[in-house]
Amino acid sequence: MPVSDLLPELMVLIGAAAIVVSASFLPHRLHWLCAVAAIAVLLASSVVVCLRWNDPAQLTFSGIWALDGGAGFAKLVIFGSAIAASALSPQWMATDRRHGEYYGLLLFVALGAVMMAAAADTMELIIGVLLSSVTSYALVGYHRQWSPAQEAAMKYFLIGALANALLVVGVVLLFGLTGATGYRELSAGLAANPDPWVVTVAFVFILVGLAFKLGATPVHMWVPDVAQAAPAPVAALVTIITKVGAAVALARFTLLLPENIAWPWAIALMATVTMIWGNLAALWQTNLRRLLGWSAVSQSGYALMAIVVIGVVDQALAALLVFLASYAVANLAAFSAVVYLRGRTDLSDYRGLARQRPWTAAVIILVLLSFLGLPPLVGFFGKFLLFSVVIEGGYAWLAVVAVINTVVSLFYYLRVIAVLVLPREHQHSADMGWAAGTTMIVTGLLVLALGLGANGLIELARVLLAPYHPVP
Amino acid sequence: MILTAALAIPLLGALALALWTGWSQSAARRWAVAVSIIPLALMALAWWRFDNNGAMFQLVEEVEWVPTLGMGFRLGVDGIALAVAAMSALLFTAAIAYPVDTRGSARQYYAWLLFLEAASLGVFLTLDLLLFYVFFDLTLVGMYFLIAGWGHGKPERAALKFFIYTLFGSLFLLLAILGLYLAADPLTFDMRELIAQQPLAGAGVIASVVMAAFLLGFLIKTPLARFHTWLPAARCPRRRAGASFRHSGRRVVENGDLWPDPDPVQHDGRHLHPVGLASRYSGADFRYLWLAGVALLGLLISAALFLRILQSLFFGELPDRWKSMPDLNAIEVSVLGVLLGLVVLIGVYPAVLIDLVETSIVWLVGGQ
Q1: Is position B64 within any domain?
Q2: Is B15 at the interface with chain A, CB within 8 A?
Q3: What is the distance between the alpha carbons of residues A340 and A367, in angstroms, rounded to a whole number?
Q4: Is there a domain that residue B324 lies in?
Q5: A150-173: per-residue pLDDT in tens?
Q6: Of A369, A380, A388, which is closest to B178 when you measure between CB atoms?
Q7: Tens of pLDDT along A291-342?
Q8: Cα–Cα dist B232/B164, whole Å
Q9: Measured between alpha carbons, how far is A232 from A230 in angstroms, rounded to an integer?
Q10: Structure confidence at residue B261 (pLDDT)
Q11: Which of A138, A234, A241, A394 is 20 to 30 Å apart from A80, CA to CA?
Q12: For residue B47, which of B17, B83, B99 has the smallest C-alpha distance?
């Protein structure tokens, strides 16, 4: 059991524990040091992931933990997002009495997402989902005196309890059927053609459990509330990393399934409904953060498109990863702008922002156009690869659905852009200081730079082979 | 380097206007005029260097951009593209030089106009299908902000409608481009390579579907019947001096208007280019005489309509509301004079234009 295989995860775990302990000894005015510590730990873990980039894909820790390109890429995205969220937080949390331990929770939620992405065993998948769920409930409700935050946390918790329970039932059914939890044994057991009805039911339960983390229909209702009422850095982090972790986990899991249960159609249906629902709900939102939340739902629908063809098209995983990375960068930039403007949420508060704060407005506009998929921003290449793989995989109708949804989404993105740019009025606004401002500028530049330098991103995702595929 | 410079200089000019806030209204205008003359001069230089009997695509420049996808920054011109690009450069200079009420935001107005110029020239000069799509979408962004910021009536609504409607077209274009791309081997967006490969030749239904998606994309952009509803909304808010320049600029950007048009400068057959390319790829062929007959009828009707306009311009009483309208000033006269001079010149001596585009048109309709 080579412990060093888990070095990045162990560093995050020990760092989180150390932060929780030291937060109880540090005076409150020095709690920002915990943010520095969290960023340092995450940076160190990312470096370790990069150093091991070229190691061959393998299973480790008695075959429950995958070390492959998909997991590595997901780790980089998750750790990177957590770094940005930590950088956004010190000012935001400065007056909170539990400022220090907040960073411990941030590290735990990142760890849960990483476990999901790397799980090659259903039990480990459950642990990852639960770890990321439990910590994110607490983070979402961190402003516990504020009733919208309580509502969001409660909603998140209730839906999560249901979805996690279904996930556990699905795993138990599969275990009863094949007597295995490891993906290698599961794959062998499922290849022996057990009762297809039980497999179908188990698949649906597990799909719903992971859809909750993805923010996909029918268990997406928590996303807009979390985006609106959670502390803004947490909203950015939770919408990104749970999606990344769950998408990779779902891709890995679907590869085990036998072909006779038509799982691609189930996922294609979920993708379609998610896209449409998210977009329609966003159309008339008057609250920017809620709008970003609904937009996150529809983006989950796009991400699911790649999973539909994951077994058929070689580049499907690369397309999924590039899309997730592009979404992560853009979403971080969007929420950084919100944090920088001290969390204002109502769309009418943004009127004429381009005159008062042209750079902030420029970042928001770039982000929205990137969500839309306009070239040469990074979102374009994400969507382009998705369209490309679904057409190649024979699901051209899914690409048409996505195109129509993209056109619909333009309506609400343009509503925001018009509010930012067109009113000729000045309004004065306070901001959140240099840390949030720098994060906003860096992530905003990344939206543009990763688009212009898309080759590097695509190459990084393409050299990854298909996720470690268990040989029965 | 000529073509890259023609794109880069307006873009840098726009950036300079956008990044430095200290421009006065008149300085911004002078800067924009000066910047926009450079691509015009470069286009003239390209015209001079262009060999009418040479290769199909000339002045080619190529830099890898996303080699993993087979996408590159590839520029080059055939006769048609050169003619239209030169004409857009001229129109943009005219539109920028023409005095316009910028409502106190001259800096932003000219920045967007220069940005739009770079994107529109890119549409014509690119030899890479995906890069074409990139520039195509960038023109939408530029036009959205111009219409929304400086339109009349309900500019926000018009701009919104314009953007949504044309994005719909351009996304189908993207799907069509993808269909073509996925059929190619090796995967590439290089137009020259695609023309040589003819990846969908004889591919039956798939070729027709791709062709249909190309057509749908271009039909929405060229305001044809059934697909034109965005046009009036976008045009009406701009009913003022100068707007017509932008309109014709935009029209050309969208690969020409298939309706008969009295202005030979605009009517140069560019609209054949993308549709023609698509038809070449899919092996379709349309030589229908009756279509020409119908078009002739349309020509007749629009001649009658223009005669009516002339009639009301020159005869009858001047309505009171126009009596206080000032006459054109010197700048307006000179801008209009140059354009009208070209109308007459190309009418009298069409060889300057026809020689340039002829070889490419022969290529295009398959007479190689």
Answers
A1: yes
A2: no
A3: 15
A4: no
A5: 999 999 999 999 999 999 999 999
A6: A388
A7: 999 999 999 999 999 999 988 888 899 999 999 999 999 999 999 999 999 8
A8: 14
A9: 6
A10: 33
A11: A138
A12: B83
A391: nearest CB among B159, B167, B179: B179
Which residue has tokens 């409608």?
A: B161
Which residue of chain B is at minimal alpha-carbon distance from A397? B175
CA distance A302 to A312: 18
Contacts of B196 (CB under 8 A, 6+ apart): none
What is residue B223's predicted lDDT score, i.e. its pLDDT?
55
Structural domain of B219: 2-315+329-363
Q: Give the distance from CA A220 to its chain's centroid.
A: 13
Q: Does B149 touch chain A (CB under 8 A)?
A: yes
Residue A455 with chain B: CB contacts under 8 Å: 64-69
**pLDDT at site B270:** 36
Note the pLDDT tens digit of each residue in A401-422.
999 999 999 999 999 999 998 8
Question: pLDDT digit of tens for each residue in chain B (368 aa)?
Answer: 889 999 999 999 999 999 988 888 889 999 999 999 999 999 999 999 888 887 888 888 889 888 888 899 999 988 888 988 998 999 999 989 888 888 888 899 999 999 999 999 999 999 999 999 999 999 989 989 988 888 877 888 888 888 888 898 889 889 999 988 988 888 889 888 888 888 887 777 888 888 888 888 888 876 544 444 444 444 433 333 333 333 333 333 333 332 233 333 333 333 333 433 443 334 334 567 777 788 888 889 989 999 998 988 888 788 888 788 888 888 888 888 988 998 899 889 888 888 888 878 877 776 54
| Cβ-nearest to A403 among B67, B133, B171 | B171
Residue B110 lies in a domain: yes
Chain centroid, CA B213 distance in Å: 20
**Cis-peptide, bond into residue B262, ω within 30° of zero:** no
Residues in chain B within 8 Å Cβ distance of A459: 68
Distances from the Cα of B282 to the Cα of B73, B75, B255, B291, angstroms = 25, 24, 20, 21
Residues found in chain B: 368
Residues A69/A57, Cβ–Cβ less than 8 Å? yes
The secondary structure element, H or E, covering residue B139 is helix B129-150
Model ipTM value: 0.89
Q: Does B38 touch chain A (CB under 8 A)?
A: no
Q: Where are the domains of chain A?
A: 3-462
B206 close to A (CB below 8 A)? no
What is the H or E stretch that residue B41 is in?
Answer: helix B25-49
* Separation of alpha carbons B271 and B326, rounded Å: 38
Instruction: Retrieve residue A169's tokens.
Output: 């039932």
How many structural domains are present in chain B?
1
B287-319 exposure pattern, b = at least 16 Cβ within 10 A, e = fewer: eeeeeeeeeeeeeeeeeeeeeeeeeeeeeeeee
| Residues B210, A68: Cα–Cα separation, whole Å | 37
Q: CA nearest A372 in B: which residue?
A: B167
Nearest to A383 by CA among A292, A458, A278: A458
Distance (Å, whole) CA B72 – CA A457: 16
**Calpha distance A375→A451 (Å, rounded):** 8
> In 10 A of CB A55, how many CB atoms?
12
Residue B355 covered by a domain: yes
What secondary structure letter does DSSP report for A65? Answer: E
Please answer whether residues B59 and B3 qualify as being in contact, where contact means their C-beta atoms are separated by less than 8 angstroms. yes
d(CA A217, nearest CA chain B) in Å: 25
Query: Cβ of A407 and B171 within 8 Å?
Result: yes
Kindly list the residues from chain B whose CB atom is less than 8 angstroms away from the CB atom of residue A410: 163-164, 167
Of A132, A140, A143, the residue nearest A12 (C-alpha): A132
The dihedral through the CA atoms of A174, A176, A180, A185 has a sign that is: negative
